[in-house]
Amino acid sequence: MKLLVVCLGNICRSPMAEGALRARLASSPLAGRVEVDSAGTGGWHAGEPPDRRAIACARGHGVDIAGQRARQLTVKDFEEFDWILCADQVNVRDVLRLAPSGRRDRVALLLEWAGVEAGGEVPDPYTGGPEDFQQVWRLVDSAAQAVVARLAAG
Ligand code: 4NP
Questions:
Q1: pTM of the model
Q2: 14 and which of 38, 135, 140, 143 could share a cystine (Cβ 3.0–4.6 Å)?
Q3: How far away, in angstroms, is 12 Cα from ligand 1 center?
Q4: What is the mean pLDDT of the chain?
């Protein structure tokens, strides 16, 4: 199973979600059986580490995401990954624009696919403060725990 988390810039929400998923999976019976990556619909930050506020927030929760590097979503990702899980509805729209017709049903909202909240979005913290990053962590870590439960249930 290969999961790709997508947001706009791939420096805040999706790197935090990738970190939360990796951490929750590593300490679960699924360890080693699920691959996780992240990407952005935009390429402005390609090659950069996550935003320093995202790194600090994740570190505060015991997860090191400093080694991640941003990249832009490509058409190849639709072949590579089983699911493309988006932070918000704008991401879903942008991802679907790039999706081959046979892969559109593999694009979903992260929080919805995880079973956390139908239609739920992870709000963009980029222009916000530390509390916005904490809120992102709460959401993506809830999603990570729910994803582990979902996949472990088969
Ligand atoms: P992200 O946040 O999509 O959660 O990585 C953003 C990062 C950068 C920008 C927007 C959102 N930006 O406009 O550069």
A1: 0.98
A2: 38
A3: 6
A4: 97
